[in-house]
Amino acid sequence: MASLQAMFMETSTRAQFEAVKAIMNSHMKVGTLVRDHLLRIMAHFNEAEIHGSSIDQQTQVGMILETLPDSFIPFKTNYVLNKMDLNLTALMNELQTFEGMIKSKGGEANMVVASSSSKKKKKVSNKRKTSLKARKRQARQRRKLQRVEIISTVAKKVTGRGTAKSTSIQ
After folding, report:
1. By the number of CB atoms within 10 A of the CB, which of 57, 65, 99, 161 ranks highest?
2. CA-based nearest residue to 169, from 93, 39, 68
3. Residue 19: which residues within 8 A CB-CB, separation 6 or more?
4. Do the Cβ atoms of 90 and 36 come closer than 8 Å?
């Protein structure tokens, strides 16, 4: 009997991990409605909850904000700076309103496009190109580490291992 419980518990833990992993690896694709994206993410949250996971609402909102594309940066900035505390339904409504504003303006909200008046192109030195590539590589590595840390923190919360105090998404 104990072996059956251990076998089913292992499956449940694996399912919890897979549901959280699906959330953290999902990103809203260009052209997808924010409503459809959030419903898919909420389905993953429900699946994780069915398998015994317990992710608080603030962490869920943070995870959702991380899956949004760059066109939602003004919304994310506003959310953090104004210390908003929305439930998932209110967040969906606010995101849909913001998405409508973006679409009504015909593109990105609050974006500035700069153009050069000169027609000459400046040559960039190889040393500068190399340092730019290195900075981009380091930034990708930092983002990857942040995702891994978030997944491991959430997994610890879900399985009850470790004592993670809070999950912050930056």
Report:
1. 99
2. 68
3. 44, 45, 47, 48, 51, 53
4. no
What token pair was written down for 51? 């398998």
Q: What is the pTM of this model?
A: 0.54
The Cα 29–Cα 27 span in angstroms is 6
- Contact status, residue 140 vs residue 148, Cβ threshold 8 Å: no
DSSP state for residue 109 in the 8-state scheme: T
Token readout for 78 is: 């506003």
Q: How far is CA 105 from CA 49, 101, 158, in A?
A: 38, 6, 41
Question: pLDDT of 104-162, one tens digit each?
Answer: 876 544 444 344 444 455 565 666 667 778 888 888 888 777 777 777 676 666 666 55
Give residues with Cβ within 8 angstroms of 129, minimum separation 6.
none
Tell me the helix, strand and coil percentages in the chain, rounded to 5.
Answer: 65, 0, 35
Q: What contacts 85, CB < 8 A, 6 or more positions away?
A: 58
Number of C-alpha atoms within 13 angstroms, CB side, residue 106?
A: 0
> DSSP secondary structure string, 32-90?
--HHHHHHHHHHHHHHHHHTT----HHHHHHHHHHTS-GGGHHHHHHHHHTT----HHH
